[in-house]
Specification:
With 71 residues, the protein is an alpha+beta fold. Helix content is 20%, strand content 31%. Strands 1-2 form a two-stranded antiparallel ribbon. The mean pLDDT is 89.
């Protein structure tokens, strides 16, 4: 049974790194370290910071299949 949980993560990242991330949209992203998230989109938006010439605001929407999680 698929049970989806949606969580968010706000980032402020370099434009070159963002371009690489955009190519993975809708796909899988491997994270090999701890990554904090929130179920509140507005909270995540606080962590996106401000756009600059070198950086852009990014909001990740992550869907987790909690039906297949092992506890």
């Amino acid at each position: 049974v698929i049970k989806l949980l949606t969580v968010y993560r706000g980032l402020n990242m370099g434009l070159d790194e963002f371009e690489k991330l955009k190519n993975k949209a809708g796909g899988f992203l491997l994270v090999t370290s701890f990554m904090s998230t929130t179920m509140d989109k507005d909270v995540a938006l606080v962590f996106t910071g401000t756009n600059t010439a070198e950086k852009t605001r990014v909001l990740l929407e992550i869907k987790v299949d909690i039906g297949s999680c092992i506890t």
